[in-house]
């Protein structure tokens, strides 16, 4: 699968960041500004993904987000996969929050 990709440390601030992980992964730790739409719900919730700006897609390690990126580009969105996912995001020291106020981690 050939999809546009960017390293987590190079994702610009202020972009539309789409997290396609499962709810338990999201709750454990995510980027503060990310929008959560699990991969399995993406087709039904496509209207929540902007069509006028690039969408940066992240999952845990990059596999699900690559699938989502390919599909989003196929349906006319401009999407970029975040290589290495939230594991790379955390390793790069990018900000993270957890839903329950505990210390965020990548589930």
UniProtKB/TrEMBL annotation:
The keyword Transferase applies. PROSITE patterns: RHODANESE_3 (PS50206). The keyword Transferase applies. Keywords: Transferase. GO terms for molecular function: transferase activity. It comes from the Bacteria. SMART domains: RHOD. InterPro entries: GlpE_sulfurtransferase (IPR050229), Rhodanese-like_dom (IPR001763), Rhodanese-like_dom_sf (IPR036873). Residues 11-98 form the Rhodanese domain. This is Rhodanese-related sulfurtransferase. It comes from Sphaerisporangium krabiense.
């Amino acid at each position: 699968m050939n999809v546009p990709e960017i390293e987590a440390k190079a994702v610009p601030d202020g972009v539309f960041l789409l997290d396609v992980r499962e709810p338990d992964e999201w709750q454990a730790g995510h980027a503060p500004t990310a929008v959560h739409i699990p991969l399995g719900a993406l087709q039904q919730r496509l209207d929540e993904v902007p069509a006028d700006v690039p969408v940066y897609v992240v999952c845990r390690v990059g596999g699900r987000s690559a699938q989502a990126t390919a599909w989003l580009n196929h349906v006319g969105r401009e999407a970029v996969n975040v290589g290495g996912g939230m594991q790379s995001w955390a390793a790069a020291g990018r900000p993270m929050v957890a839903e329950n106020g505990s210390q965020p981690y990548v589930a």
